[in-house]
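Thread: 6-O-phosphono-beta-D-fructofuranose complex, take 2
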Amino acid sequence: MKKIAVLTSGGDSPGMNAAIRAVVKTALYKGVVPFGIYDGFMGMIEGRGKVLTYNDVDNIIQYGGTVLGSARCEEFRTLEGRKKAIAFLEKEGVEGLVVIGGDGSYTGASLLSKEMNIPIIGLPGTIDNDIFGTDHTIGFDTALNTVIDAVDKIRDTASSHHRVFFVEVMGRDAGFIALHSAIASGAEYALIPEEKTDLVKLSADIRENSGARRGTIIIVAEGDDAGNAMEIMNKVKPMLPGFDLRHSVLGHIQRGGNPSVKDRILATRLGNEAVHRLLAGETNMALGMKGDEIVACPISRAIKEHAMPDARLLTLLKELHTIGGSERALKN
Ligand code: F6P
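Output below.
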């Protein structure tokens, strides 16, 4: 294999640059030419890319976003679009491909590999952590740190004014960010798409337990079945008379910023491994990390299976934020 291309696709995530850097530097170390494709599959269709040098990727490990650019590309779903992309890869003599992105990007990679005989390795790059076959995706840890920083600040107002805050975090299909940030920020509730939300029960719980709390924080995944943070707040308002309710949407600040140590190391290890695996003849594999071990599963399986947040964390949240029987007894 003489030339390996790398691209980033879908929503950007902190650590993508660290992964690109590791792919490029490892390829150079192994005597392979690294080739960067701009703006994901869109750039592949439009024939935009260049040979990357050591210098191109030096000094980028610390930055969020992706120096190659990214896109969500509808045209790649069409055969016509993919034909253009394949023609570009053939013209450039690309013999292996590393795709860094979420499950949409994995789907694109899988379609490509059916129509072109090119080895492909996928790396999980998304803040949502919703990729099967890895404990964590590249960017998840940094996004969580951003969320808890914001929630810590919101908590100051929530407790000073005895308010109930609905804080909306990203995750249109997945509740990993909501659940993990709720645990880490000491929020009282997490509403996630994977669990049916019962607003009557939530309101009753807030009424029952808020006496001992100075404020209440509910982290809402944007894809929750009961609605977004503002909609949920408006729905529970009539059930919480006398309560002061507010909502706050964290939005894209969660996707940016300098990657955490954890994301830099994860991305660097996976980027390095991707090149080794391509050179060893592997194809159509999605890499991930389980514990401290790099693992791989077929891209087709990573697309088909659903990554689920750990339900034990929901129980944990409940146990920590329900005022226990003994405290009730003491009060009475
Ligand atoms: O990267 C995934 C994600 O963060 C989702 O959680 C969110 O719904 C989506 O991206 C937002 O995407 P966009 O920036 O394209 O609006």
